[in-house]
Write a structure and sequence with these properties.
The complex is a heterodimer of chains A (700) and B (63). By secondary structure, chain A is of the alpha/beta class. In chain A, strand 3 and strand 4 form a beta hairpin. In chain A, helix 3 crosses helix 9, helix 19 runs antiparallel to helix 29 and helix 23 packs across helix 24. Chain B is of the alpha+beta class and 63 residues long. In chain B, strands 2-3-4 form a three-stranded antiparallel beta sheet. A two-stranded antiparallel sheet of chain B has the order 1-5. The longest helix of chain B is centred in the first third of the chain and has 5 residues. Classes of the chains: A alpha/beta (700), B alpha+beta (63). At the A-B interface, helix 3, helix 9, helix 10, helix 15 and strand 12 of A face helix 1 and strand 4 of B. Strand 12 of chain A pairs antiparallel with strand 4 of chain B.
């Protein structure tokens, strides 16, 4: 059996921790969840040498062991629990060369837990340019550790790091700070109460209990220990920070030399423009515009390709197995159409994730937070709400989770509640197909009408999010102090590898998670559409033949299929809700789509695809693309189902309605009650209905 | 230069990033309405709201 070393990667946000993780593991990684909470757990395997493997755990970024969020709490929980199967044999602290001082604070804390600790200094390639020089030997000696100088951008130092990981047993375990020097009397008392425990660990548990209140105590039960008031503890923590910085400053005085005249040119130049009072906003707007143009225009080609491929595939299934009966139908109409309905959106979703990850990697996202904080605060949000709102354009689920770094509970709750209004990628399929149907082609200033409509829909979603935040802010009362600390990271050219891995992982998750639901619903729909109760469904042929005796055979077949669908189970469901949705301009087929969408909106298109292919499933007829089918859809009197009015009404309905069970589940998890998701569901759907109603009645 | 940052309402995170007595703060830029403030403290670049910033006592030093 080969030996495996447990490695935990720990570090401040923005230090390139993930780049180091990617460099060590490549694509040998998987993202899961920590049990009970929804923090991403990223782990991977790295081959060291001679059959020695390292199991690498990428812990959430944190500035210190004093957690103030769920993500950060994961780190301390793990490090205090020796029995955890992921408890590290060695901790690798990733720091970046420019913020060594601050990064070392976390380093000293972890080292004081007596875990073998390695220091990685990332971005060593920019040292010279920034005028920084390090004396690694002095640093190693003073910090009692081994240091790997790494550049993930240039790909250097990774082999050395692997070697150091393998020799983790030789790492000295000396602590950096003797905790008892913080306040000798108090710590003496603490040690007496728990003679066999490490006082630093005890101290961490006590302060965590006071600040965060979530540490599972295990053997370190300090609840009986009479401790100090919160403000006194805080004073001690401040003292601890000062002591640690004293230690660090002493180390760096000898080990680091910074020539300030060379530093920070790019940052200040870029900042002067990117967070300028006017240009900052103009640039942000242009970036958004580019993203939407890309999603709409550039993604068209691969999408058309996928569309035709799947239509061809369904036809091929039909012609290859003409005698398969119901099974052939199920595969061609249920499964292939259903899968096609999701695969087609991969190009757009990938584009979206691409842009978001570039904005985050480059450091621009923090600037947007800075620019928008004041404006967002007026609506009861925080500048940090912008990140969830922007990532909400990919998917509300990670967006709701991204609200965790908003320190203020009220701001966080409001952000969670309004985030589902932003246009998530699941709405895209619906928007795209309806826009293609009802908005004319044509260009204005080089931008297509259709792209502009899409942009408008994003703005409407965003506007509604902000507006409802404003309303919620007025309704909800709070007396908690707000605070807001954002680090402004250095500008970096995004690493292609990181971006691609993110895009790949996120798209994959989206496709598989959403795909499962869509496929299941497609099959259920197909069954519901292919069977029906009673005479009317089973004797459709006879009834229709009687009614339309003078028509040609082909036309009769069409009528039969339509008649059958109308009297199938699904037809009955659609017909039942038709009176409610008629004023919005929808027929019962769209109604079926709406009902199915309450599980997840992206099934709308797939549902219509299934319904319409069932509807025209007569022999020898070629299978059209969904779009053609929809535009050919007419009422009994010959007028089109998808007109400008009903199209707009449908767009608005999808813009506002809460149609995503997964989001509701996440909101429940994050707010720990059903109250908020229910308010979301009812509130949003009511708004959607009212807006769709008004739009249709005016436009029609 | 920071002279006092012991107010109870200052988040611990800020202290740990180096907002401690004796460290220098430099105001780099202000967002519209001069809020939030973009600062350089202890080699870290931070943005904090005016509200929080008003709790930190500083003393002007000449460079």
């Amino acid at each position: 059996m080969s030996k495996q070393i447990n490695v935990a990667l720990i570090g401040n946000p923005n230090t390139g921790k993930t780049s180091v993780f990617n460099a060590l593991t490549g694509l040998n990684q998987k993202v899961g969840n920590y049990p009970g909470i929804t923090v991403d757990k990223k782990q991977g395997i790295c081959k060291l040498s001679r059959g020695v493997k390292a199991h690498i755990l990428d812990l959430p970024g944190t500035y210190s062991l004093n957690a103030s969020s769920l993500d950060e709490n994961v780190v301390i929980e793990l490090l205090l629990n020796k029995n955890d199967k992921d408890y590290p044999d060695v901790a690798v602290i990733v720091s970046d060369v420019e913020n060594l001082k601050r990064n070392l604070l976390l380093f000293t804390q972890i080292k004081d837990l007596k875990i073998p600790t390695l220091l990685v200094i990332n971005m060593s390639d920019v040292m010279k340019r920034k005028g920084i020089s390090l004396d690694v030997e002095v640093l190693e000696e003073k910090l009692n550790t081994k240091i790997a100088l790494v550049s993930t951008r240039k790909g250097t130092g990774i082999q050395e790091l692997k070697k150091l990981i393998e020799q983790y047993k030789t790492l000295p375990k000396k602590q950096c700070l003797d905790a008892s020097t913080i306040e000798p009397a108090y710590f003496e008392r603490l040690q007496k109460a728990f003679p066999n425990q490490d006082i630093y660990k005890l101290w961490l548990v006590i302060t965590q209990d006071a600040n965060f209140g979530k540490v599972s105590r295990q053997e370190l039960d300090v609840s009986k220990f009479k401790t100090k008031s919160t403000s006194e503890l805080k004073r001690l923590q401040q003292k601890e920070a000062i002591k640690r910085y004293q230690f660090i400053n002493n180390v760096l005085k000898e080990g680091q030399n910074i020539d300030r005249s060379k530093a920070r040119d790019l940052r200040s130049k870029l900042d002067r423009v990117l967070i300028h009072k006017v240009w900052g906003y103009v640039i942000f707007f242009i970036i958004l515009l580019t993203i939407f143009q890309a999603i709409y225009d550039w993604a068209t080609f691969p999408m058309d390709l996928i569309d035709t491929t799947f239509a061809g595939l369904a036809e091929w299934v039909k012609s290859s197995y003409p005698n398969g009966g119901k099974v052939t139908d199920l595969v061609a109409e249920g499964i292939v159409s259903g899968i096609g309905g999701i695969v087609i959106f991969i190009p757009q979703i990938a584009f979206l994730f691409l842009f978001i990850s570039i904005l985050e990697e480059s450091g621009y996202m923090s600037r947007v937070v800075f620019l928008m904080d004041r404006i967002m605060r007026r609506f009861g949000l925080s500048g940090k709400s912008l990140v969830p709102l922007i990532s909400g354009t990919a998917c509300a689920i990670p967006a709701v989770m991204a609200t965790r770094n908003i320190e203020n509970w009220k701001e966080r709750l409001i952000t969670i509640l309004v985030t589902p209004f932003t246009t998530c990628s699941a709405r895209l399929p619906v928007y795209l197909i309806i826009i293609a149907l009802v908005i004319p082609e044509g260009y204005i200033f080089g931008l297509s009408y259709q792209a502009l409509t899409l942009m408008l829909l994003y703005l409407i979603g965003f506007g509604m999010a902000v507006f409802s935040a404003y309303v919620l802010d007025r309704i909800m009362k709070t007396n908690r102090k707000t605070f807001f600390v954002v680090e402004m990271p250095n500008y970096k050219l995004p690493l292609l590898k990181n971006v691609l891995i993110t895009v790949f992982e996120k798209t994959k998750t989206f496709v598989f998670e959403a795909g499962k639901i869509i496929l299941a619903i497609s099959v259920i729909l197909w069954v519901l559409a292919s069977y029906g109760p009673g005479e009317k469904f089973n004797n459709a042929e006879a009834i229709v033949a009687e009614q339309y005796a003078d028509l040609s055979d082909a036309k009769i077949d069409d009528k039969v299929a339509a008649y059958r669908l109308e009297h199938s189970y699904i037809g009955i469901i659609g017909k039942t809700i038709e009176p409610v949705i008629k004023p919005l301009g929808y027929d019962w087929k769209i109604g079926i789509g709406l009902v199915a969408s309450f599980a997840a909106r992206e099934v709308f298109v797939g549902t219509l695809a299934t319904i319409y292919s069932v509807g025209s499933a007569t022999e020898n007829e070629s299978i059209d693309t969904i779009k053609t089918k929809m535009s050919n859809e007419i009422y009994e009197d010959g007028s089109k189902v998808f007109t400008f009015a009903s199209g707009i009404s449908l767009l608005l309905f999808y813009a506002f309605a809460m149609q995503c069970m997964s989001t509701l589940a996440i909101v429940k998890r994050e707010t720990k009650s059903w109250k908020w998701p229910m308010i979301q569901l009812i509130g949003m759907s009511t708004i959607a209905y009212i807006f769709a109603l008004i739009a249709f009645q005016i436009l029609n | 230069m920071i002279t006092d940052s012991s107010s109870n309402d200052i988040p611990l995170k800020l202290l740990e990033m180096g907002c401690l007595p004796g460290n220098e703060v430099k105001l780099l830029q202000l967002a519209p309405f001069s809020d939030p403030m973009y600062l350089n403290v202890n080699d870290s670049f931070l943005a904090i709201r005016k509200e929080t910033a008003s709790l930190i006592v500083i003393e002007k030093i000449n460079e």
